[in-house]
Amino acid sequence: MNEKSSPSPKRTNDSQVPGDSSRMLRIATRESPLAMWQARHVAARLAEYGFETELVPLVSKGDTDLRPIDGTRQVGLFTKRIQQALLDDEADVAVHSLKDLPTQVDERFALAAVPPRETVRDSLVSEKGIDLGSLLPGAKVGTGSTRRMAQLKSMRSDLEILPIRGNVQTRLSKLHDGEFDAIVLAEAGVVRLEMHDLPRVQFSLDEMLPAPGQGALGIEVRSDDAFARDALANLDDLETRLAVVAERTVLAELHGGCLAPIAAYGTVEKESDDQPGELCLSVVVMSPDGTQRLEEHARCTLDHAAATTDVAAAVMLGKEVADKLRDAGASELIASVR
Q1: Do the Cβ atoms of 7 and 45 come closer than 8 Å?
Q2: Which of 20, 65, 88, 100 is catalytic?
Q3: Where is the segment annotated Disordered (predicted)?
Q4: Most buried among 105, 288, 313, 321, by the most CB within 10 A?
C-alpha cells in the first residue's frame, strides 16, 4: 500500500523549486525497515521544499534470495527491481543505499542527489557488546562482506568468519539465536533505525575502512525527467557527492563490485568555509584471507567555484589511486574472490 506525505509550505528563499510543484513524486523503495526509513527520510526532505510524495514499496531479488552472494550474483541484487520501477513508470524516484548501486553508467538513469552522509563506520554487535579482541578463539562472526571479512581476518586470523544475509532485524535474530557470537553491521543503519541501545563496539577507521559509498544514499530518477531531477537537486550535498564519486571511481576502475575486498573513504578537508579545501581519498585492497594488503592515499585541491569542475577532479583522483593500486597488483587480489 502506498504511503503519502503531505507537503509543507514552499520556501520563499533561494531554494530551487521547479514551477510545477503540484506533481506527485512517487518514491520506489525496498520494503525492509531500513530501506523504508531511507525513503521516508527523502520524502520528508522533499516535503520541506513543497513537494508531495508517495511511497511505492517493492520487493527486490536481494530481499528474497538469502543465499550467500557469489561472483555470479553480486551486481544489482538490491537495485534492479527499484530501477525497473522507474522504467515502467511505477515510480519517479528510486532511493538506494549507495554502496549497493552498481558503478556501471546507465544513461537511462541520473543520480539526482546524494544527501549528507551518515557515519561510515562499522560496528561489532554481540550479546554483551564486547570488542573484537575479547572474542574467544574460534568465535563465529557473521558478515556478508568480503571487505569486512578480510579486515577481520587481518586482525584476528583465529576467528571463524561466516556469511550472513538478510536485513538488520534478520541478522540480529540469528545472533540472538546463537548462530553467531558476533556480527558486523554498518553503524549508519543502526543509527537510522534508532537502535541506540544495541550492544556494540565501533571499529576505528584504521581497523575497518568502509565500503565505497557506505553511509550515503543514492537517489536516482529517469534521466529524461527534468522535474524530478530538479526537485531532488535540493537534497544534493556537494561534499558528500565528491567523496563518493572518488570512492566509486576506484571501484569502477578496478572492476570491483559487491564482492571485491575494496575499502575506500573520501573526505573534504578545509581550514575554513572560504577556503577551497582538498578532497582526500584512502583506499585499501586486500586478499580475502587478510594476509595481503595494498593501500593508497591521495588528495586534490578543489575549486568550489564550479561543481562540475570539482566532480571531474574527484573522478581523476579516483582514477589516479586505481592506477597505483593496479600497478601494485590489486587486480590479482580482486580476481581471487571471483
Answers
A1: no
A2: 100
A3: 1-24
A4: 321
